[in-house]
Amino acid sequence: MRATPLRPGRWRKVVTGAAALALAAGAVTYTGSATGAYADVQTVTDAKTASDGKQYWVQNHLVTKDLARAEGGTPKKWLLVWAGDENIADTLVKDVKNLPGTLGGGLNKIKNALPGPDFLAVIDATQGSPTYGKVVNTATVGPLVENEPHHMQYVWHKGDTIYAGALFAAATYAFDVSALPQLKLKGVSLPTNTLGGSVPDAYWVLKDGTAYGTYMGGPVVPGPHAYADGSTQIGNGFAGSPGEVVHFGQNAQVLSESPAATPQGDNQKLCDNLPQLGKPTCANPHGIQAREDLNTLVTSDYAEPRNIILDPVKQPSPYLRRPTVRTWDISDRNHPKLKSVSYLQDGPRADPADPLHAESRAVMETTVTNLPGHKGAFAQTMQGGAVFYTPDITAAEPHWIEVFDDGAANKAIYANNDSNGGSSNGGWIQTSPDDKYLYRAIVGRQKGTLSADDPGTTGGVYVLDIQKLVNAGDRIEDIEGRIDTKAKAQQGGGGDLPTVVGAAPINPGTPGAGPHWGAYDNFVLGSDGFYHETDTPQHLAVSNYFVARSGLDGDHKVNLLNLGPDGKVSVDSNFRDEFTGQVGINFNRKSWPHGAFGNAKPHSELFVVADADVR
After folding, report:
1. Residues 6 or more apart in contact with residue 108 via CB below 8 angstroms
2. In which band, very low, low, confident or very high, does the pLDDT at 30 lie, cut at 50, 70 and 90?
């Protein structure tokens, strides 16, 4: 069936009626485009009815000329990037932070200042391909806008559903990517399906294809919320506290909700809540990874989320950023039970006058080891700028120690950096599949963060050798080396502690402009002409965007890096934007396959291969 394409400039006004016609007809395909940049686009829509009785969809916008080039020859490897449309609410934050100045310009200040569709970009990541780095599809979601696309799972395996979170919309999308570059929508979870939590963040896919997701914010409605396990928690409302872990089926149906809060509450001094709760809590889970063979799940608490959005200029309290990591018993996969809450400790550069930048603050992410002989896990702090480790996540009360300070990698990333890891704005951290290396992305410290004359630091990617550490045993006492002086924080703790083996700057010389998120490429092309999973990734992908309305935005570029077997890493200079010719795919552009909607915000990415091309 053919249909007249929507003109991008009218999308926001006519989407409801046009979408209704398209969905009534099922999958709609047409050829043609309203933009010169993408002259021939095929559109295919897939819709599902959600629990509210309304239809939700993903609409593929496939670039015909680039797909034609892709036919035959080497099978494709794709980079999927979950991205949000930039609008006036994002750009005004920069204006407010830079006052005195002007807030003039209004809706004319940026191209297409009103909300447009958010999307998954499908980019050719096949090295040597004539369409390498080209966006061959933008799969837009609807009818929800202002999703603020955030995280997906950390790695994709053949047959996995892709779970993608909408930070502001409190929705979780489930996508079928078996026939890439085209996607289908398997289902969507709405806020009314997860009343025990809000603000979905990250996902971990289990071997049965279901997934755990962290919902960082509190129950949707303030006051008492009764969970299926019989417990009741008092929350302070949407995007507040306490959060939860949600178990999703492969169509995004909610299988269970498990509270992250303890019955007795958490440390009152270290855990602020706004508004205050009778039992203070740090339970705002962000990062999430599991070891199914150990029946253990690990989550890391980042922040009470709404407070870093409501006032991006002056944070209400440093104690809204969390110092805690939680472990869960997942022997019963559908009923995770909170097992322990650990408080990370401040390190040698902590200043009581500046608790926000102490090593323990804002435990954004965690990553587990992978091999059967290892039981450890890592956690990293965004404002604290440090990496912590516990050798045994199965312990009743895991003991975590600082094993690396981001400051010790600063000069390896960029020679002109100082060696202060505070407020490194680190995000992604991930063990390699063979447990040899730890990959880390840091935005870098923004200019003026620690003092008026603070020059800030260049961000980038660094790689740590963790082999001695993970093989040191299951007890803290068996680990040699400690980060217990400022000198060791800047130079490394020695002994079994990690050492830098590779580093690469992103936007060298520009402070606070590095990547927030990343993913490793777990596929290699075999001699049989099919892709196979590998334990030694050869590439990484990173994205330079956090959350604009928090005051930490980014230049909206996605870069690929080449990764050697020794951990050496370098930016891939062949992965270039199809319009500017510059290194890195620029999501600040006038046009997309889905229309002239202007800039977009790429938050997370995954390497994915069509099922037919993987063995």
Report:
1. none
2. very low
Unique residue bearing structure tokens 């919320």: 225
Whether 396 maps to a domain, the answer reads no
Give the three-state DSSP class for 549: helix
Residue 227 lies in a domain: no
Contacts of 69 (CB under 8 A, 6+ apart): 130, 131
Number of domains making up the chain: 1
Structure tokens at 28: 């709609």
Q: Which domain holds residue 18?
A: 1-189+592-615
Average pLDDT rounded to a whole number, residues 308-313: 62
pLDDT digits (tens, 9 = 90+) for 349-386: 999 999 999 999 999 999 999 999 999 999 999 999 99
Residue 162 lies inside a defined structural domain of this protein: yes
Which among 449, 454, 451, 401 has a CA at the least distance from the CA of 425?
A: 449
8 A C-beta contact, residue 179 and residue 254: no
- Torsion sign, CA atoms 502, 506, 512, 516: negative
What are the Cα distances from residue 612, in Å, to 65, 76, 529, 609, 615? 22, 11, 11, 8, 8
Segment 403-424, tens digit of pLDDT: 999 999 999 999 999 999 999 9
The answer, yes or no, to whether the previous bond of 143 is cis (omega within 30 of 0) is yes
3-state SS class at 210: coil
In a domain, 111, yes or no: yes
**CA atoms within 13 A of residue 223's CA, in its CB half-sphere:** 1
Q: Say which residues have a Cβ less than 8 Å from residue 577's Cβ, sequence separation at least 6.
A: 133, 583, 584, 585, 586
Q: Output the 3-class SS for 352-394.
A: CCCHHHCCCCCCCEEEECCCCCCECEEEECCCCCEEEEECECC
